[in-house]
Write a structure and sequence with these properties.
The chain is α+β, with helices and mostly antiparallel strands. Helices cover 39% and strands 16% of the residues. Strand 32 and strand 33 (953-956) form a beta hairpin.
């Protein structure tokens, strides 16, 4: 038998479950310490609270100077006590009213047995039952033919007492009688305190006033013979009680519980805490990435408790002497150091000392969207007033220094500090859990500095070199030779980086492409080679040392310790170097030269000419560009005058532009001219800005500051440079050009004009300045961006909250399964993606050793055999495939020669060691929720995307993510991508004819009306040619059923004849029929809106807009196995839950990918598994209440009152196993660190 643990410790008590049930009279009386009988609050003479009134001192206190009559304690120690009041007549409880109504509908109104349906004969007592109806003010009436009865609470109570135990069991209730209340609980005074304005005047809480009103109403009920008065008084009592439970005007009990400021979310799920500070943040490149600079003033206020032991008593005494602590706790008495001189410490005392360098604190920025928004840093005290940290750590916090504020939390126990250091330390969070890419890396000035420092033309004298490398702690001696010896000894910037690499613990071997890679060993130095920790070629930029530098970056080669040192040193050096060298942006950086202006004008002319060709394509006019007369120049002439160009080609270009302008002005168009060609015109105009960006790269100097920043990835892009120097480009509003606000024009002073500038094309640059109309259009699209950001923040915030509530309990168990209160996945899906990096490492190291001659000696020790026990079979197989693939593509003959099984084993072992498996008991659900919710803030709100065809848009961005996770049935743009069995154009047209939406008017040749003396005839002739061209397959006989019955219909070949007798009103019916017959749909699939044929790799396929997946799959000619829909609800109904699960994952991946956001498959897999775990459920209040059973969790999410009342009616037990519930009741969370219980066997 196991030994019992020694219980000499005081283990903290834990709540194991909470049970909800309706408060019966018995429970209320047991809870109550005093009965309230009077409505008055105070004694009229003594002005003290009445003992039997609503603020009786038996129920607790509101004033400091009095004593509780129940527990005899003062205001600080008395927690308050409940009282009760017995109502003069029973009433309905507003929270249980729905349930009472439901029960009354299903029971017999005579014997209370179960009915088969509402108004039927009872099997037990054979009585006929009528209907039940709800009225206002919680009134229920019972109607049986002409007999109407008001079901009062008394009548309902007597009926409920007749319910048999078997029916109670079916209703899942102990006793429905408890739903009607006879007495109420009077809450303690502490939760409704009186506010003393002066000795005379007191303000009472809303709840107290409501209780007093209820007692007054109840006491006034007169049991007289006048029924009407009695019922009115009963109604008043009902209203008075309802206003205590819920009342929008004065806060009822429900209003105190629900919403963001209610008890659940404001005081239970989240609380204000001590030992925190908040101030503005500033950058400081001289701090390490894992340090945070804390103002001395804050460090003196926020303290850490430390116990005096025999090991630290001397240090502690020094702290007291230097007054670096605030308090000492001796024998449970707190002494202030300021007022107690000459304190002598004893072992066992506790001192509350100031923060000092090296302490661990938590650093946080709101909104905290993912776990990296709160990390553990080491303290560095300084004398200024702001928090400071290294700019490399801005990305995870999403911080900038334009006035942002951040918070610190000082941890109070050694256990918390250790845990924070290991789990939340900056050095253990360099890689984002969203996609395993670096999220802390060099940024902005560091990248610019590093890029300029490592360029081919950067040379340093011995003194400059020495000064730069003096900025780091040298751990290892390293000799760096000068690169140039004559005429002076000079070092390159690469030498500084080589010195930095030499100080790291690891050896670095890397071949990678930088951002402006053209080809290997090109003069632009875009191919980077680091061999044996020496930078031989290439310039360091964002791809190598920045964030999201997974494919070519340096971080995956290093340990966390080395990454930390590399970033620290890199930040010191590059910021110093840039400050000494100087780097700024001026007006000359955005001046275009002559060639650039000439090329830009050519670009504009080409674009405009292409648009004119497009417009003239279908118009049979012979207009050419030669016939136009003069017109105001469209080109900003100031731009050309300034550069004083006498160049004839530019003059010719100006004249050409004038001609083009004139043409646009003279051309009168119809709206249809543009509608069909809109997408082509848009794509022509959007290319102009891109081409201008390429021109800037071509013609601007390599010393141009914006270009340098764009090249190294520190800030900006090609488009930013293009807009400043060359052309601002087309302004877009919700995915299209500026729309017409007036008839065929955007602004009133344009004359019916087709010119691109009239639809928001801005041809000027910011340097040359915008004209008035250009400025206006630019402001229009700028406004849309601002509104978008504001809307998006609210949308994504709510989405993130729902995701987290749905996924918070999902964790990884020791058997590798993923569970919450039920199984979600049998195995957590993790993949390794970095095979090529490991291959490069093995290759470079082995080649180095081969050249040094140590390869064959060290191989038997270094490249070990496979350690089969710890390896994953699937991963090993994948490794072998990858190794064979890499060796097959290897260019180095030498490496092919020395690559043997030992090297292959080393490759496999390294892959296994690099594979970061999720730790057991990890909150994988919360990680998935954050990884999907956080990137939502980076997405643009309304984005449309061409789904392979120009004329079809797909909703993307936040609205699409919302559609998917809410599992919406009617999505904005349902599209089915259908592959064909025979993907030829002819077959595609045939299948399109079977699916597309056609109306009768599409195939009508003529309609003839014939009137005789007796008859009216409508003849409809169908066009055989149209039917064969459109490949429509339809049965002409089916039209009979769709035509009005008043007419006799005969169908002969392709002719429909409708005959009717001539009557007075029939003439108008005839005209109506003529209109309606054109609109009759003849397609088989109702939901399809339109079908487009698309070509891909010389194969034809169909894009079908609309729903109707089942019908499409059954259509002849469709290849049903590979046909996809983007409507997940429809996929679930047609193909089942597994297909639906794959569709959720595929659609989420596609949406994020089209915004350039990478998310690991494992997160999307987990979300799709949770959504399809109990059938398809959206992450909405409905879905979450189906997924979760815990009352407290649901109450802290949404619909607080409904969830609490439902739990009480069904008498549910909450076992408090989830995260929300544990936080609310103050329990350890059951996974993560809290999933492990450690016991000390004190005997041994």
């Amino acid at each position: 038998m196991k030994e019992k643990l020694n219980n000499s410790f005081n283990y903290p008590m834990e709540i194991s479950f909470i049970k909800f049930q309706p408060a019966t009279n018995k429970i209320i009386k047991k809870l109550s310490v005093h009965e309230i009988t009077k409505k008055d609050l105070y004694d009229s003479t003594l002005k003290t609270p009445l003992p039997d009134g609503p603020i009786s001192q038996y129920l607790g206190l509101s004033r400091k100077d009095s004593q509780c009559l129940t527990c005899k304690k003062g205001i600080e120690d008395c927690t308050g006590h409940f009282g009760h009041y017995n109502l003069k007549a029973p009433i309905f409880h507003i929270g249980y009213f729905k349930e009472i109504y439901k029960i009354l509908k299903i029971i017999c109104k005579t014997c209370a047995s179960l009915l088969e349906k509402e108004n039927s004969i009872c099997k037990e007592c054979k009585a006929l039952n009528g209907k039940i109806k709800k009225l206002n003010n919680q009134r229920i009436i019972y109607q049986l033919s002409n007999y109407i009865e008001l079901l009062t609470p008394e009548r309902v109570k007597s009926l409920f007492t007749l319910i048999k135990p078997s029916l109670k069991k079916k209703l899942k209730m102990t006793d429905p009688v408890n739903l009607i209340i006879d007495s109420i609980c009077v809450p303690p005074n502490n939760i409704r305190p009186s506010v003393f304005v002066s000795e005379e005047q007191r303000n009472e809480d809303d709840l107290t006033i409501r209780i007093a009103e209820l007692i007054y109403t109840s006491e006034n009920i007169s049991f007289t013979k006048n029924l009407a008065i009695f019922l009115e008084e009963k109604d008043n009592l009902q209203i008075a009680h309802n206003s205590i439970i819920t009342s929008d005007k004065n806060k009822g009990i429900l209003q105190r519980l629900k919403g963001k400021t209610g008890r659940f979310r404001n005081n239970l799920s989240g609380k204000r805490v001590d030992f925190t500070g908040r101030t503005v943040i500033s950058p400081d490149p001289n701090l390490s990435v894992e340090e945070v600079g804390i103002p001395q003033r804050i460090a003196k206020i926020l303290t850490i408790q430390e116990r005096v032991t025999q090991f630290n008593i001397e240090d502690m005494q020094k702290i007291i002497k230097l007054k670096k602590a605030n308090y000492v706790i001796k024998n449970e008495k707190t002494l202030s150091i300021r007022f107690t001189p000459n304190l002598t410490l004893k072992i066992g005392d506790i001192i509350e000392r100031h923060l000092k360098n090296g302490d661990i604190v938590l650093f946080n920025r709101q909104p905290s969207l993912h776990r990296l928004s709160i990390m553990a840093h080491k303290v560095r005290i300084h004398k200024n007033k702001t928090f400071r940290f290294n700019e490399c750590v801005c990305t995870p916090y999403n911080a900038d220094f334009d006035g942002d504020e951040m918070n610190i939390h000082v941890l109070q126990s050694e256990f918390a500090r250790i845990e924070a250091k290991i789990l939340m330390g900056v050095r253990n969070n360099f890689f984002s859990p969203r996609n395993d890419e670096p999220i802390i890396g060099a940024v902005q000035d560091f990248l610019t500095g590093g890029y300029i420092l490592t360029s081919k033309d950067t040379f340093l004298t011995r003194e400059q070199f020495g000064e730069l490398i003096s900025h780091f702690k040298r751990k290892k001696p390293c000799k760096i030779e000068p690169t140039l010896l004559r005429p002076n000894k000079l070092y390159t910037g690469k030498s500084v980086i080589n010195f930095l690499f030499s100080q790291l613990n690891e050896n670095i071997n890397l071949e990678g492409k930088t951002r402006n890679f053209i080809k290997e060993f090109h003069s632009n130095d875009g191919f980077l080679v680091i061999n044996n920790s020496k930078l031989l070629f290439g310039r360091i930029d964002k791809n190598i040392i920045g964030i999201e530098s997974k494919t070519n970056g340096i971080f995956n080669l290093l340990s966390n310790e080395s990454i930390k040192e590399l970033l620290d040193y890199f930040a010191y050096i590059t910021s110093r170097y840039l400050m000494n060298k100087g780097f700024s942006i001026g007006i000359d950086d955005v001046e275009g030269n002559e060639s650039l202006i000439e090329e830009k004008t050519n670009e504009l002319i080409n674009c405009y000419e292409n648009i004119i060709k497009l417009i003239n394509k279908n118009n049979k006019t012979n207009d050419t560009l030669e016939i136009y007369d003069n017109c105001d120049s469209f080109m900003n002439t100031e731009e050309i005058n300034k550069t004083n160009i006498r160049n004839t080609t530019i003059k010719n270009n100006i004249n050409k532009l004038k001609n083009i302008n004139e043409y646009f002005d003279s051309y009168l168009f119809t709206n249809n001219d543009l509608k069909e060609k809109e997408s082509e015109i848009s794509s022509l105009l959007s290319k102009v800005r891109e081409n201008c960006g390429n021109l800037c790269t071509k013609y601007l100097s390599f010393l141009n500051a914006p270009l340098i920043m764009q090249d190294c990835g520190s800030k900006g892009s090609k488009i930013n440079v293009s807009q400043m120097v060359s052309c601002v480009g087309q302004q877009i509003i919700s995915g299209s050009r500026i729309p017409f606000g007036f008839t065929n024009r955007t602004l009133p002073h344009y004359h019916n004009n087709l010119h691109p500038k009239c639809r928001g094309f801005v041809s000027s640059s910011f340097r040359s300045g915008l004209s008035e109309d250009e400025f206006f259009f630019h402001a229009v699209s700028g406004r849309e961006g601002l509104v978008d950001t504001a809307v998006k923040t609210a949308e994504t915030g709510y989405m993130q909250r729902r995701l987290m509530k749905a996924l918070e309990d999902v964790n990884l168990q020791y058997d590798k399964t993923v569970r919450s209160d039920r199984m979600i996945q049998f195995e957590y899906k993790e993949k390794f993606s970095d095979f090529f990096r490991v291959y490069l490492q093995v290759k470079n190291e082995s080649l180095n050793e081969y050249k040094e001659g140590t390869f064959f000696n060290s191989i038997k020790y270094k490249f070990n055999t496979l350690n089969n026990e710890s390896l994953n079979d699937k991963l090993t197989e994948e490794c072998e495939l990858k190794w064979n693939e890499f060796i097959g593509n290897e260019k180095s003959d030498l490496f092919k020669r020395i690559a043997n099984d030992n090297l292959k084993n080393e490759f496999i072992n390294r892959v296994h060691s690099k594979m970061k498996s999720m730790e057991y008991l990890s909150a994988v659900g919360a990680l998935a929720g954050q990884s999907i919710g956080e990137p939502g803030t980076q997405m643009t709100l309304k984005t449309f995307h061409f789904a392979g065809v120009a004329s079809m848009n797909i909703t993307l961005g936040v609205p699409r993510i919302k559609e998917i996770i809410n599992a919406v049935r009617n999505i904005n743009t349902p599209i089915i991508k259908a592959n064909l069995l025979f993907p030829t154009l002819d077959e595609a047209k045939k299948v399109k004819g079977r699916i597309d939406k056609f109306k009768l008017k599409d195939i009508i040749k003529s309609i003839t009306e014939i009137y005789s003396n007796t008859e009216m005839i409508l003849e409809v002739l169908l066009c055989k040619e149209s039917i064969s061209n459109l490949k429509i397959e339809f049965n002409i006989e089916e039209l009979r059923n769709k035509i009005k019955k008043d007419f006799h219909c005969s169908i002969n070949d392709h002719k429909i004849t409708l005959v009717s007798k001539k009557e007075k009103d029939k003439y108008f019916i005839m005209k109506e029929l003529k209109r309606e017959i054109k609109e009759i749909t003849i397609s088989k699939i109702k939901e399809v809106k339109k079908v487009v044929i698309a070509q891909e790799n010389n194969l034809y396929k169909l894009f079908i807009e609309g729903n109707g997946l089942r019908e499409v799959l059954c259509t002849e000619g469709i290849e049903y196995k590979s046909t996809l829909s983007n409507n997940i609800v429809e996929i679930n109904e047609v193909l089942g839950i597994e297909a639906c699960r794959n569709a959720i994952k595929r659609e989420l991946y596609y949406t994020f990918d089209s915004h350039g956001i990478k998310i690991n498959d494992k997160h999307l897999e987990l979300l799709s598994d949770v959504m399809t775990n109990k059938g398809l459920l959206g992450i909405t209040r409905f879905g979450i209440s189906k997924l979760k059973s815990s009352t407290l969790m649901l109450a802290s999410f949404e619909q607080t009152g409904d969830n609490l009342f439902n739990s009480a009616i069904k008498e549910q037990k909450d076992k408090l196993l989830g995260v929300s519930e544990s936080v609310i009741v103050g329990k350890r969370i059951g996974f993560g660190t809290g999933g492990i219980k450690l016991f000390l066997d004190s005997k041994n």
